[in-house]
Structure formats: C-alpha cells, structure tokens
Design brief:
about 250 residues, 10 helices, about 50% helix, globular, alpha/beta
Length: about 250
Amino acid sequence: MSKIRLSTISTTAPKKLDKEKIKAETREILIELDELQNLLYAQHKYSVLMVIQGMDASGKDGVIKNVTGTLNPQGCTVRSFKAPSTEEAEHDFLWRIHMHAPGKGMIQVFNRSHYEDILIQRVHKWIDDKIAFKRMRAINDFEKLLSVHNETRILKFYLHVSPEAQQQRLVERTEDPRKMWKYNENDLAEAKLWDKYMDVYEDAFNHCNDIPWIIVPADHNWYKEYVIALTLRDTLKSLKMKYPRLKK
C-alpha cells in the first residue's frame, strides 16, 4: 500500500463537476439517509462511527451540521473531544473514547477523536515517538474491536483544507459577527505549526490505516458535504438492511 502524502492530494473539488448539480445530488442523498437511518435503528444489528478530523477551520462543525443535521437525533449523536478533564487524564487515553462508541443501531459522530492523542500531543512534544507508536497500535486494536466484534462500520474522514483557505476562514472569524464566537486566539498560533501537523497527520494515516482514511478535499464546502454524505449513504446501503418482521 502506497503511503499517503497530503502534498500530492488536491484540496479543491474536481473542476469538471457542476456545483449546483452536486448540491442537488447531496439533497437527494440526505433524503435517502433518512430512510437508511431508520433501517439501521430498527434492525439494531449494526452501528456507524464517523470520525471527523482536520485542521482548525477545515469545516468540521459545518459538515456535521449539514450532513447529519436532518437525521433523527434519537439515532445519531455527536461527541466533541477537547482537552481531557482531570478525571479523563487519570485513565488510559482511550477510556474517554470507548464510552462514546456507538451502540447497536446508532450513528456516532466524533468531532475530533482518539487521534488527537497522537496529533497535537506529538506536535507539542507532550509525548515522545515511542509512546505515540504504542498508541497507534492501541488505536488499531480498538478500531478492530469495534468493527469485528461489534459490527461497527468506521468511517474516518480527514478534511483536507489548504493553508490559504484556512487563513481566510480564520480571518473571517475576526470580522464576521456571525462567526466571531468560533474565534480562539490559539488558532493562529497553531496554524503556524502547519508543517509539523502535516507530518504527524501523515504518520497517523500511514500507521493507522487498517480501516482506511478518506481524504476529503475541504476548500469547497459543497463538495466536502457531498463526499461525506455519499460515503455514509453507500456504507449504509451496503449493509442490505431490512426491517424486522413480527415474530410468529
């Protein structure tokens, strides 16, 4: 398997695509997802874990809202992972993650995830490479546990934004009153560590790829939402689910 190199992957939508046609197709996919989610919840055999990773301002919040926002909240939940609490830090790094793994019939979305513990922690040298690679092996085992032993379909999306698009979006947070609530003074400082983040992301992709990563061009929101919605739709359709019948 060839290694993932982010510098060789486009951050923009293919030029041949028609924006309005893709947006219309996305709307149709979201209608399909409503029925597929009902099937997933009713059959109660499978579950889905969607991991959404990306640099600041890559559009994680927006894509979660626009792809899963119309789903039944009884069967789809979102968990955001920030700095661990005191209690969480006293346990192994997967402790706080495992308790939010999806149950049967559920779609669970992680806004950031267990991968933060081999990303930001490595960039800031809070852990060394030896610990990082041990954690990568643990992540592979964890994901195998969910997928093999609990029928969980894991979809790992990296929102691949360009540094230029990121900078534009960060500036908008200082100028647009509707986006100022997103502003964090640390974001600009983290953006300066771009090259280091790309290195550790590529390491994560290439060492934790038993369940493959999906690199999503993220400069255009309409295309990013289409790719993620389409992948979720196709994954659910592949399960060939049926509604349970009355027991005779």
